[in-house]
Amino acid sequence: xxxxxxxxxxxxxxxxxxxxxxxxxxxxxxxxxxxxxxxxxxxxxxxxxxxxxxxxxxxxxxxxxxxxxxxxxxxxxxxxxxxxxxxxxxxxxxxxxxxxxxxxxxxxxxxxxxxxxxxxxxxxxxxxxxxxxxxxxxxxxxxxxxxxxxxxxxxxxxxxxxxxxxxxxxxxxxxxxxxxxxxxxxxxxxxxxxxxxxxxxxxxxxxxxxxxxxxxxxxxxxxxxxxxxxxxxxxxxxxxxxxxxxxxxxxxxxxxxxxxxxxxxxxxxxxxxxxxxxxxxxxxxxxxxxxxxxxxxxxxxxxxxxxxxxxxxxxxxxxxxxxxxxxxxxxxxxxxxxxxxxxxxxxxxxxxxxxxxxxxxxxxxxxxxxxxxxxxxxx
Length: 379
Prior knowledge:
Layout lengths: L1 H15 L10 E8 L5 E9 H7 L12 H6 L1 H8 L3 E7 L2 E4 L1 E12 L2 E11 L6 E6 L10 E7 L4 E6 L5 E5 L5 H18 L1 H11 L4 E4 L2 E4 L3 H27 L7 H20 L7 H17 L9 H33 L3 H28 L3
Parallel strand pairs: 1-8
Antiparallel strand pairs: 1-2, 2-6, 3-4, 3-7, 5-6, 7-10, 8-9, 11-12
Helix pairs in contact: 1-10, 1-11, 5-10, 6-8, 7-9, 7-10, 8-9, 8-11
């Protein structure tokens, strides 16, 4: 029992130690296109201005905003920083040779989370590749959690990959796409996304904290059986899953699109309201309705990872299904770790009178801080 106390206290301390910048992770969007089996390919690389500002500096006058003039003035620095961190190799007929990249133009685009520099460049290989090897090294030295979302397009089909510091290389078969590798990569990305998405974790905890309790006579009391607790957990987690899966699909297919600041602020608000409902229970018996309603907002947050990549057809289907499956696996792992500990301690004064209110208060304060930053654009 003492170990249970220590574990839960460590979890409560972890809430206070969560990074304040729990928002959309750092991503870039890289598209490589081969036309008609040519040895000359085309590349487009969208890199967030906030990431480039952090890495090389773009805001020349220090006024907190980046103008098109400032972006153009730093064109040489941008290309000099980005292109050397991308290496491509062609493979065909037993040969493997490096390709060369040539910068063409710098543009600007707006994604759901803000402004992006768009680098267009040509890729010249010694021969038409049957396989294309992509080595990616952007921003890892300043942000180890950065992800590169790669879409390799050919006349036959497209393939999507996730490039990270621990897996910076991808090999695309331009003639026969390796669909299983793509699916598995997005499962891993979904797991990583929810485990690194502190706001999603905290909202899930606001649902799980009271799942082993029942509100009666003006206070939280232990549920009489494990079956009752598991039924409640199943209802709220299932409702959350259905809701965020629905809006994830709608957003990725561009049927729903909201500004990133509104979505991220909404997610912080759901976490705050979930924590307040634990402290001052208004919704006591049908908490799955809360999970479903608020889960719709969280699905829009999940979609930010995929929606800007512009995937289509099977490429989109595999990425979407794999990513969503990964989110569910990551979510299930949290449930399996937390619920047994909470159930073991549900009858103790420590859990009901100390851990639950203190945990909810810590989550609420963290969410209120995020909400203030996100709604004002400070984050």
